Structures are given as structure tokens and as C-alpha cells.
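Dig into this one:

. . .
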Amino acid sequence: MAALRSPVGALRFAFRQPVSRLASQRPASAFYSTTVDSSNAESVHITAASSSATGVPSGDSEPFTVQLDANSFKAYKTDIPSLEIETSKNQLLHLYAEMVKMRRMEMAADQLYKQKLIRGFCHLAIGQEAVAVGMEAGMKPSDKLITAYRCHPFTVQRGGTIKSVIAELFGREAGISKGKGGSMHMFTPTFFGGNGIVGAQVPVGAGLAFAQKYLGTQDAVFAMYGDGASNQGQVFEAFNMAKLWDLPCVFVCENNKYGMGTSAERSSMNTQYYTRGDVIPGIQVNAMDVLAVQKATKHASEFTLAGNGPLLMEHVTYRYGGHSLSDPGTTYRTRDEIQSMRSSSDPIQGLKSKILEWGVVDEASLKKIDKEAKEEVDQAVEEAKQSPEPDAKELWTDIYYKGTEPDWMRGRTLDEIHRFR
């Protein structure tokens, strides 16, 4: 047992043990939760259909007020956002349609991956649609966002197209990164990826926020990371710098309860991620409710642009599939847990139930939206398939910012030279 003589050796030994052996030393609840919030009774309630509305007008664009559930938010060293949000019938239908499209797109990617038309890494956000759609609804168009690798819905919401995402997954010319980036590297003018190194995008987000303050843009930056990246040293370094300089940065922990195959409770001594900024205030959000996400995002943008410095925002959500398409997602959690979340807290079904309850439209109208979403995604897939693979000369493009290239660049061998001018 020489490996146990050092702390590092002991940790390696522990993490190599089968769960069955470790479970004999710790209660089963430490590994499998019968309800997603069992580890933390103080967390927000991640239900999708708990808001209420009265006096819904007849006009499609007339505003009315929705009262969010009292447990939609928790706060640390700050006030929670208002529980009232103004919306309209058109806005609710837009949110519904966007979430349905994002799910259809991710479901298509799942099938295309299994058909081997998509290769490499592919991380899907099925179950987490309210995060991307709700954040986009709460952000200003000029606000900036950077995230990790579960980035397909953010790419579309921030100005990309479904076709450009699918084509990028295929490695085709019509891809949003010209077929050279793949699943984890997608960008738009206000969306900075799609980043594959765990936690590395967080200090880049702080840098983006520094740029906004330096240029005086009055734009907020949302730097996202997962619960699995929350213990990275660079995350806390970014917190420190952002607070030192009071940068307009919202650090967003997208907590879907599992970092790869490890539950948050196994990896973090404090799973209240919104409280981990020390002197930086934070809010926790029920991110299975798209209206709560929209309200919290708008609140966060306004908070940091008012000169208050950075804010932590934890979105409590849940992914139905595995960490990536190479992960079945059922070896570290029970099928009953997944089914329970699908049946009780699905963000799309939750909003659908409220749309019907409030008399926004009838079920036939929602089925039409569902059909149109499927047709739009199916068409995007077919168009992406027709796109050719990028030409070999594209290997030399997009290495440097346009206009800053050197005179020449060496290739794979000493005699392989490409001249930019």
C-alpha cells in the first residue's frame, strides 16, 4: 500500500475503486439521489411550471405580468431579482418555439453521431434548453457570452443558424467555423465559444469584461462554466481579478449536477456555487424555468453594468443524456432519477403547460410549432449534408486576426511554406 503514503496517492487509490466498494464506506445517498435536490435543502426548486399569471390580455403583443415561484431564486450578499416578469403571448410562444428547435437540433445531432456522420467529441444540451434560450431573452444583443463545450444552443441563440451548427459538426464548408472547429469551437460576433479546456474560458471571459470596461461599451459579459469546472484554480483567479477591477462580468455556473460522471456532492465541499465568490455576491436560479432564467439574466446584466462589479449566477439545471455521446449517462445515476426529472421538471413541457393554462393558444397551435421546428431542423440537416468539405488551403486561414499575418508561415515540414504576402 505504498501508494497511500502521500495525499495524491491516496486520492488516486480512492478514485480507482469501484463505486460498490466506496459505497460501503459512505451512505448510498452520497452517490445516488432519489431527488435531484436531496443534497441541499436550501437550493432553488427546479420545477418548470410553478409560475402564475392573471388578467392575460387578448392581444398577442399586449404585455402582462407573470409571478414567478417564490423559490425561483436564492441570494448571497445581495437581493434576489424581482419575482415579477413582464411578457406577452408572442414572447411566450417565441420562447417555446426556440426551446423546441434547440432540442430538435440536439436530438438530430445525437442520431447523426450514431450514424457516424458526426465524429469526435459531441456534448449535447438536451434538458438544458431553458438556459440558452432564457439567457438570450434576458441579454442585450450586444452583451457578450463565452462558455465551455455544451455550446450548440448558445451558438444559434447568439446569431448562428441550425444549418451552420450541423454543418460544423459534419466538418463542412458551410459550418459556422468553416468546418474547422467542430462541436466545441463555434463563434459569432458576440459569442466567444465553445472552448474545450475545462475552466479555461473563465479567465478569457474576465478579459472580455476588461475590454468592455476599457472601451466603455456598457455591455455585460457572461462567462459560463460547469459544476465540474468550479474547483479550477483559474476560475478563482478570474473571480479575484474581476472584483479587484470591478469588471462588468457575470460568472455563470451551469450546474447540471454532474461533472462528467461525478456528482457535484462527490467533487465539491460546497455545492452552493453561487456563494463561492467570497466577497462577490451571487444568485441561484431555477434554470428549468425559462422565465426565471430570463428574469435573472436581465437582473444580472443590469446589476454589473450599474458599477457593482462582478456577480456569480448559478443556473440549477439537468441534462438527460450523458456528459458526451460516448457516455451512456446511467452508470453513475439511476434511470429513475432521469425519468423523474423528465416527467416533473422538463423546461419545454413546463412552459407548454403554462401556455395552455393561461389561454395563450390551444394545443393544436403548439403541435404546429412542434411540426415546424422538426421541419426546420430536418431541412437544415439536408442542406448541411450538401455542403462540401473545406478546401486544403483553408488550413492556412483564420490562424491570425485578418491583417496581422506574418509574411510567411512554416507548415508540417521545413520545406512546406505558405506565404501570406
